[in-house]
């Protein structure tokens, strides 16, 4: 049977590598459950070859002046922008996210980050520091590339994640072997070809395909200097454990259960807009989602009324229709997982179901594309009267499921918001900016927002606290994660200082 997309293989030495696999699987269109492409799992021997390709490319690439690397990466950013819609369509097919999102967020925010790091290293970002110790002695530091690095991606923002890892990695002079999620691998070949066309030398950016076993082999590979991982907390702990045990550098971008705090003076309408953005964008499949929505007790009736009125503006449907703003979940296993959480919320946690639930969405029955009935569509769901001990309030669902919790005092809400093992994101909605800063300062999370949610520009370093991760991506600090420091003390006094001189 012919499939909509060409098969995907490993990519190294600057080209697609067929014959690097003894098994394959299919990536699936989440809107219809129909196969999109055959993905050929990269064998261990071929992963070794991809690493060797990167090792061979490293000496010349790391010695290329930063401004020249910047020029090449800027060309790649321009190519990504020129192909925005083409790549966005690939992402829509693979992830199930509406084209209205993928065409305005996924490729754009990836290209922005590539341009940012190219400009940063081109403008002196790789320079070290000097310290004059005495008139005839000083210390200087240099930033040195790490070598061959592994990037391992999650399925929710595939090309964006690939770019958030590869952009600073390559800009700093490293080479990368990247493994996309097995659920959304299509973008990886497109990105490798964009880099090649822009003039990134063969071996500098490479791709291997497959699931967790391929990721585990890559992360443990003795020639890998660093592992940058995005995924679940449980997987991240395994990967960080094995990588850091071998003294590899690690960056871990993991899951969360973030608090969205509506302060007592907030405008209810704005608070509802914020809470919806923090829960239903990308069908709730955003790591930083504010799924624990804390509202003052007195605001509850009005908040819920306005929320129910605005839920109708969530528009599932044809993913290529520019008005569609809600897609299916990414895969059958994830669909089953999210539905089981909703069922648990109703039957075991006994939270009050304000809207949504486990029923098949009613609009599917009349949709013109009959295949949509087989897709992984769920209803956006809101639970209210929630309590902190409920499973739906404690665990990351990673779907369109909002939990409303009420509070009496600001001190109480801060302490309850922090009462979790994870600390990825948090945010507040209020007209009182003094209070906003006081509350934000006390929230235990690495990414925070005031009166907005979810925007993550290239300039903003992002990373989780507690179990949500290690290190940051993006911003100036993001570059430091891809270099190692060398400090040199220079003595010019004319004589080597010694304590072993003849008395
Ligand atoms: P996952 O942990 O199941 O998989 C992530 C990647 O790891 C995949 O490529 C997978 O093949 C690979 N993998 C699985 N087992 C491995 C192993 N033992 N060794 C090495 N690699 C292995 O995560 P997912 O379901 O793909 O992604 C969803 C999760 O990602 C959510 O928890 C979400 O919060 C998180 N996420 C975090 C961020 C962030 O920036 N903090 C961004 C996006 C997603």
Automatic annotation (TrEMBL):
InterPro entries: Ald_DH/histidinol_DH, Ald_DH_C, Ald_DH_CS_CYS, Ald_DH_CS_GLU, Ald_DH_N, Aldehyde_DH_dom. Keywords: Metal-binding, NAD, Oxidoreductase. Signal peptide: none annotated. GO terms for molecular function: aldehyde dehydrogenase (NAD+) activity; metal ion binding. It is an enzyme of class 1 (oxidoreductase). Its EC number is 1.2.1.3. Residues 21-487 form the Aldehyde dehydrogenase domain. It holds the Pfam family Aldedh. The keyword Cell inner membrane does not apply. The active site is at residue 253. SUPFAM superfamilies: ALDH-like. The keyword Secreted does not apply. It catalyses: an aldehyde + NAD(+) + H2O = a carboxylate + NADH + 2 H(+). PANTHER family: ALDEHYDE DEHYDROGENASE-RELATED. Belongs to the aldehyde dehydrogenase family. NCBIfam families: PRK13252.1. This is aldehyde dehydrogenase (NAD(+)). It comes from Clathrospora elynae.
